[in-house]
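User: Just a sanity check before I run the rest of the batch. Below are the structure tokens for the first item. I only need the designed sequence back.
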């Protein structure tokens, strides 16, 4: 069965699956004037699926006026250069990930464990470099769909962000938290600083939301905050490795 090219999460907020039904997701916010803000752009192979998702929403690449990356990894920024070319929209990234987006490479991975050192030696982590038009900061509220707040959640990458849309009580976690075989933190070898990732994930427990969109895994439509709070409460102290 074919997967829907776009799934409406709330009025004006959509998930666009770019790998499988929810293995890798992009998101889109639609403003009252019809303009679109795209969040994450998947792998380099993702743009056709993003364009199909936009079409399912009744939108065209020309409607996209901003592209926001939660962080500079190939499965989130791989399609950014192509989508920027098709849309003419500027790309926005947290200031600490700007150099990586512009160089088209992932930040160095956490080498504090043997698995991390192995992952760090593997080829990959490259994607088409993309000029960054806007450098984001923690707490910044983007003029998008009534206001989208930038929430710094570094650790998965130095400048990793999550996004909170207060109007619909929607949280987009980026890779701070996955929903793959249940709610969980990013695997340690994929992080630039796993201990920091564990600490900053707890920021998400204190925000006000109901609906959660994950860039890896399906959304939680009801009780999302409680699901994340419950998971974080079950983990050991943020400074202690699992």
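Assistant: Here's the designed sequence for the first item:
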């Amino acid at each position: 069965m074919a997967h829907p090219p776009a799934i409406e999460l709330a009025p004006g907020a959509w998930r666009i699956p770019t790998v499988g039904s929810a293995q890798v997701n992009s998101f889109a916010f639609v403003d009252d004037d019809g303009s679109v803000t795209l969040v994450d752009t998947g792998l380099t192979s993702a743009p056709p699926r993003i364009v199909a998702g936009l079409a399912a929403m009744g939108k065209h690449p020309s409607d996209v006026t901003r592209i926001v990356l939660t962080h500079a990894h190939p499965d989130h920024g791989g399609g950014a250069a192509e989508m920027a070319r098709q849309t003419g929209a500027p790309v926005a990234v947290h200031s600490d990930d700007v150099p990586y987006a512009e160089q088209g490479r992932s930040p160095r991975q956490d080498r504090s464990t043997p698995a991390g050192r192995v992952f760090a030696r593997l080829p990959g982590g490259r994607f088409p470099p993309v000029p960054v038009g806007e450098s984001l900061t923690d707490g910044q509220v983007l003029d998008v769909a009534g206001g989208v707040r930038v929430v710094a959640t570094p650790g998965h990458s130095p400048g990793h962000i999550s996004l909170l849309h207060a109007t619909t009580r929607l949280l987009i976690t980026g890779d701070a938290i996955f929903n793959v075989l249940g709610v969980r933190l990013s695997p340690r070898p994929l992080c630039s600083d796993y201990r920091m990732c564990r600490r900053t994930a707890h920021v998400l427990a204190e925000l006000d939301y109901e609906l959660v969109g994950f860039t890896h895994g399906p959304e939680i439509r009801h009780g999302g905050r409680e699901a994340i709070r419950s998971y974080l409460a079950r983990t050991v102290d943020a400074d202690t490795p699992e």
